[in-house]
Structures are given as C-alpha cells and as structure tokens.
Amino acid sequence: xxxxxxxxxxxxxxxxxxxxxxxxxxxxxxxxxxxxxxxxxxxxxxxxxxxxxxxxxxxxxxxxxxxxxxxxxxxxxxxxxxxxxxxxxxxxxxxxxxxxxxxxxxxxxxxxxxxxxxxxxxxxxxxxxxxxxxxxxxxxxxxxxxxxxxxxxxxxxxxxxxxxxxxxxxxxxxxxxxxxxxxxxxxxxxxxxxxxxxxxxxxxxxxxxxxxxxxxxxxxxxxxxxxxxxxxxxxxxxxxxxxxxxxxxxxxxxxxxxxxxxxxxxxxxxxxxxxxxxxxxxxxxxxxxxxxxxxxxxxxxxxxxxxxxxxxxxxxxxxxxxxxxxxxxxxxxxxxxxxxxxxxxxxxxxxxxxxxxxxxxxxxxxxxxxxxxxxxxxxxxxxxxxxxxxxxxxxxxx
Length: 398
Ligand SMILES: *[C@@H]1O[C@H](CO)[C@@H](O)[C@H](O)[C@H]1NC(C)=O
Ligand SMILES: *[C@@H]1O[C@H](CO)[C@@H](O)[C@H](O)[C@H]1NC(C)=O
Hints:
Number of helices: 16
Strand content: 15-25%
Bound molecules: 2-acetamido-2-deoxy-beta-D-glucopyranose
Radius of gyration: 21 Å
CATH superfamily of the largest domain: Alpha/Beta hydrolase fold, catalytic domain
Helix content: 40-55%
Largest sheet: 8 strands, mixed
CATH architecture of the largest domain: 3-Layer(aba) Sandwich
GO cellular component, one term: membrane
GO molecular function, one term: carboxylic ester hydrolase activity
Strand order of the largest sheet: 1-2-4-3-5-6-7-8
Distance between the termini: 67 Å
Protein name: Alpha/beta hydrolase fold-3 domain-containing protein
Family: Belongs to the 'GDXG' lipolytic enzyme family.
CATH class of the largest domain: Alpha Beta
Pfam families: Abhydrolase_3
Number of domains: 2
C-alpha cells in the first residue's frame, strides 16, 4: 500500500514537471522538453533553498554553471588565449590560417541575465570559436562582473572599458584587426549590453574607431513596461518566463526584492518619468499582428522613492530603447534576431521599428519557431538555423 502511494506521488510529481505545454510549431519538442524540465527542477530546487535563506538563487545557479566552463584551449583552426582589457578579463579567438589582409574584429558579450554565464561557458566558447573560424575574424569574448555581487552600472562599465580598450588603434593592430571592420554583438543580456555600449561609443569623443555593425540576438532593451504583449503571452515560453525575466531585471539594479515586487505589478516607474513611456509604447511601436488581442494601458505610476534608490532602471545605459531619435539615428548598420516564443520579442520588435523610423539600416530576422536561448542550444536544429543566418549576415556586412 505504502509503495503504491509512493509510486503515485512520484508519477504525479514527474507529470507536473514534464507538463510544460510547448507552443505547437517548435521543432524537436521532446528533446527541448528534457532541457526545459531539467532547468525547471533546478530553478525550483534553488528557489526553495533561497526561501530557506541558504543561498541567493542566482549564486546557486551560477555555481552550477561554473561546471559548464571549459578552459581556453586552441584547436586546429583557432588559437584561444585569455588576457585582460583595461582590467576586464577577456577570451580571444584568433584564426590560425594565414591572412594577407587585416581581419574583421567582433566584440562579443555573453548573455545570462546580468547574473549568469561567462565567456568560458561551453555554449559561448563553441559559438565564439566557430564565429572566429567561419568569419575569419578575431573574436573578443568579454567577461563582466555579475549580479548579485555587482549591480548596474558595473556590468555596463566593465564591458565598455574592455570595448574601448579593444578599439584603440595600437590594440587593433596588435591583433591584426582592420579598424574599418569592427562590430559588436551579444545575445539576451549580452544583446542589451551590446546595444548600450554601441550607443555610448558613437557619443564618445575619445573613441576614434567607428563600429561597422551591431548584431543583437533577442536583446533585452527596456525595463519600463514589463507587461508588453510578449510578457503577457509568455507564461509557457521555454526557458525564460516573464517572472524570471522580471527577477533578472530587478537583480541588475538591486538585490532588494521590493523592486522586483513593484516590477511584477508593472508599478515601478514614478509619474515624473511617465514621459519616457513614449519610447516603449507598444501600441505605437509594434506591428499590428502583435497587438491583436491586447489592450494598451500605460503602466501604473510607482513610488518616487524606489526610483531615487535605484535610478538605473530609468537609465538609457540599462534600457537602450530610452535613447532619443537623434542618438539612434547615428547607430551603425544593425542586425536583430527576434523569436516568436520569447518574452523579449517585443523589445526587439520595438527597437527595429525605432531604428527604421530614423533611417538606420536594419536587417531583422524573426524566427517563427524560435524561443529564448535557442541561439546557443548547439545540439538543436533551430540553433544551426539561427547561427547560419547570423554568420552569413556578418560575412556580408562586417
Ligand atoms: C577546422 O577547419 C576544417 C576546414 O574548414 C574543418 O573541417 C574542421 O572541422 C575544423 N576543426 C574544428 C575543430 O572546428
Ligand atoms: C501610446 O500610443 C498610443 C497609440 O499611438 C497613444 O494613443 C497613447 O497616448 C500612447 N501612450 C503613451 C503613454 O505614450
């Protein structure tokens, strides 16, 4: 009898975990279900240990991610080294084949919600290694201080310092990089940082090298309205739920959970900043298709105190969508990937629209069967598809 009950409980528990309804047209659903279920179990377990006061959720996950790091190992095609750029640790991938001319340079920023991952994480090591090989490019994959130990603007400043260092003429020369062919790229939180540093570089009189391109893969671009249609639709999207995204945004600015609570209610922007909503107004910036079934309400005004304590979430360096049209109009050639089943989908779609409105050339690839994290899910067909498009765009435009 006891064994039957135990078995029943086990079956119910397993069924609960396995039951993540995936959107219909996602490829390789069973393989994906295994990944999402594993993550769900890990997140639930670590959320529980956090609730018990044992360890911060993101510290636990990052501890686990350290086991997925690989050393800087060269292979037959690419030399991999580690160094620091202005004190920031970076990993550099140099193609081994001989080159008569100077090479392309790509400055890459990994994702992980400003809390997780590194240039050494196996998925990123593989991506940046293949990028260097296939593009015949020098790829600099930068690290940066992570939350909860470090908060905004630390992440931004680490990345910006490393980029500025790389863009110096003598440094580009040392690595054999053509100063006319340098680009910035990143995915997710890395896409956020890529967009933010690109805006900063074009306004920095000390930086003489001009960026040729920016390539943003499902970037996070604003923390003002956390109830966009993609957030409202996203409760069953793989890997990144709306509530996890809100947690990650709030962790970028503070470990104080009152910010997260206000953000979950979409009640964190005080009245005196409501003029900023025009920059993230999905009602005017999203294509018709994505507005269907949604009714626009501007977020409820929040307390001024929260914004005084954590002004970061209103800062353009954290939320590149807050840049004015004049700044945006000076941005370089832009590539943006968005995915249908991604809470950050509408951030990307709105940036595409705002850049196009001011005449920036944008190539936008939207993956109808895509989801957050797919770009670096190397054993999946969707990752190949996305990486191939990304690399062929860079091949033509960088
Ligand atoms: C090195 O390049 C060759 C030729 O493109 C390729 O066949 C091989 O798989 C590459 N090796 C690695 C480790 O990527
Ligand atoms: C958002 O856009 C809609 C439609 O263009 C407009 O009616 C509304 O006033 C805008 N709201 C804000 C806060 O900008």
